[in-house]
Design a protein that fits this description.
Layout (H helix, E strand, L loop, with lengths): L10 E5 L1 H17 L3 E5 L1 H5 L3 H10 L4 E4 L2 H9 L6 E6 L5 H6 L3 E4 L2 H11 L4 E6 L14 H11 L2 E7 L11 H19 L6 E3 L3 H6 L7 E4 L22 E6 L2 E5 L4 E2 L5 E2 L4 E6 L16 E4 L2 E4 L9 E6 L8 E8 L2 E3 L1 H8 L3 H6 L7 E3 L1
Helix pairs in contact: 1-3, 6-7
The structure holds pyridoxal-5'-phosphate.
Pyridoxal-5'-phosphate binds next to β9.
């Protein structure tokens, strides 16, 4: 992401590239042990961490290929000099072949109409594609019984180079692994079938972060790892399988403090009143930054190494917290996600407060918050 040229407000995200490097090396080692390569998933601006910096770091520490969701995301990486192969995982949109060719991106073909459109549009030009098979996600891809026909039709086009075939696991992170194992078995059958008919492409992948940690690679040759690279676990029960380091820390600084009497109403709607005299600290961060309004009355932040509850409603650009009787001053560091002293707040805590998943939390830090790389 572009560095913000005008930085006056003291609210920022620190991204530890050393942590991303550590996590990448850890997954690359698991992948190597299972005989597969590593695709670093850097869509959604590297899950909020910055796609370019994450991509460079991941490639330098064991990833061979990158994956994004949109051709736009691939184009930005190319414009910044990334030369590694890039897979666009979103479905091919007819009429967009030029973007794939200009930026040398691999397309995802997930049905017969996309195949027809891509082949017609590519004309004599080369277009590298991965075929997508739906083994149980119910999202992109042809059903297993059509996988061979898709591969054979792709070959007949003459101008589409099928370099990959892949599928996506719907439940890889769940304690009960039966459905994931079923999907993997279905995918393995498809790979056997493709091989028998001489249309087995070199890049074959189904395992994501949780999948790579838990399952054998079979005939697959790559794994697509996203969340783990950023140091987070898809589910708590996977924590014992690998040691990861969270890469994202979100900080701010106290804007102002004020001593208020008991009964003071705080923020929009005055839904909170101080039960006793206390000190309020106002923090220059709000829901426009991704400090979601749903955290009102649930979240805390860290100031002076202690948990400080958010009072009343989070505003668009500001938030009020209770610092009690402690000596807190304007300019004091605030940690929204990360470590301060002996205390920590993780994306997992936010996910619990918001009844969502850590993926959504890190992707949700808005572009208004500058990223600083360490
Ligand atoms: C198709 C596909 N592959 C791989 C990934 C990476 O998954 P994870 O972040 O769980 O490793 C995603 C993420 O949503 C995805 O949509």
């Amino acid at each position: 992401m572009e560095e913000n040229h005008h930085r006056f407000r003291p609210t920022w995200v620190e991204v530890s590239l050393a942590s991303i490097a550590h996590n990448t090396r850890a997954f690359a080692a698991v992948a190597r042990a299972k005989g597969v390569g590593l695709i670093a998933v850097v869509k959604a601006d590297g899950y909020g961490h910055g796609a370019l910096e994450t991509a460079k770091t991941a490639l330098a520490h064991g990833a061979q290929v990158l994956a994004v969701a949109l051709p736009e995301e691939g184009a930005v990486l190319r414009e910044h000099g990334i030369e590694a192969p890039i897979l666009v995982m979103g479905a091919y949109v007819p009429g967009t072949v030029q973007a794939y060719q200009q930026y040398s991106l691999m397309a995802t073909i997930s049905d017969f109409d996309q195949l027809k459109a891509a082949a017609a549009e590519a004309r004599s030009g080369r277009l590298a594609v991965h075929l997508k098979v739906d083994t149980g996600m119910g999202r992109l891809g042809v059903l297993p019984q059509h996988a061979l026909a898709l591969a054979q039709k792709a070959k007949e086009t003459g101008n589409l180079e099928v370099v990959g075939v892949y599928s996506h696991l719907a439940t890889a992170d769940e304690v009960d692994d039966s459905f994931a194992c079923h999907q993997i078995a279905v995918f393995e059958d498809i790979l056997s079938d493709l091989e028998k008919h001489h249309v087995l492409p070199p890049m074959r992948h189904i395992l994501n972060t949780a999948g790579l940690l838990r399952f054998d690679a079979g005939r697959t040759t790559m794994a697509r790892v996203g969340l783990g690279l950023y140091g987070l676990y898809p589910a708590p029960h996977l924590k014992g399988l690998i040691e990861l380091r969270p890469a994202l820390t979100w900080k701010s600084r106290v804007a102002t403090v004020k001593r208020v009497p008991a009964g003071t109403g705080v923020s929009y709607g005055q839904v909170y009143h101080t039960p006793k005299e206390t000190t309020l600290a106002t923090i220059p961060v709000g829901y426009a930054d991704g400090f979601r309004r749903g955290l009102s009355g649930r979240a805390h932040v860290l100031i002076g190494g202690k948990k400080r509850p958010v009072l009343g409603r989070i505003c668009m650009d500001q938030t009020i917290v209770d610092v009690g009787d402690d000596a807190v001053a304007p300019g004091d560091e605030v940690v929204l996600i990360g470590q301060q002293g002996n205390e920590r707040i993780d994306a997992d805590d936010w996910a619990r407060w918001l009844d969502t998943i850590n993926y959504e939390i890190i992707c949700g830090v808005s572009a208004r918050v500058p990223r600083v790389y360490r």
